[in-house]
């Protein structure tokens, strides 16, 4: 039922729409909704509509609280930085206040990031956007269409690089390519002079974030297969950590292709 709310998007929905999205009969959905209202998972609104309640994000926060120790994820980013010679970043999907991304860790060696040429304001706009940059689009490609539409309704940040997709048709086509091959490439989207490669980080079929490598465009005019493979392997390893299986698989089931 909670996934049905996610798939439908919007604020509130009736039992009929939820039943169709969850592939359940109406009577079962009604019983679940009544039980969920009592537990605070759902909230009843006017005219027979329901929305997710405060207990739903509390459950998510409890699950995330038991995610892997940051040292384990940072070690993977450091290995990615050494393997590619670029700057490595980990982003997570942050839905509060509208879907966006948030950088939670990075491996940048001795860099202080000033060479990126990004102002503090740009960090709060471009780096949060899901429609700008390989890291943002690698997440956006796997979100429900309703959330994608909400993201596309927002303007491209003024601080975005010259390669940012200004046209929604081209942007949507790029999301199709990401889903087809499992990774995203960016050319001067977030900052002039920097190219990117990113892959989604998923837990049990849900996109949670993305891992990114940035390199100067004069060094990485075209992203080599070795960088793409390293980014995808790191994303798969981070997915295994999130599921509590460090090194427990070859990562193939972690890629959303």
UniProtKB/TrEMBL annotation:
Cited PROSITE patterns: ICLR_ED
Residue span, IclR-ED domain: 55-245
Keywords, sorted A to Z: Transcription, Transcription regulation
Coiled-coil stretches: none
InterPro entries linked to this entry: GAF-like_dom_sf, HTH_MetabolicPath_Reg, Tscrpt_reg_IclR_C, WH-like_DNA-bd_sf, WH_DNA-bd_sf
PANTHER family associated with the record: HELIX-TURN-HELIX TRANSCRIPTIONAL REGULATOR, ICLR FAMILY, HTH-TYPE TRANSCRIPTIONAL REPRESSOR ALLR
Protein name: IclR family transcriptional regulator
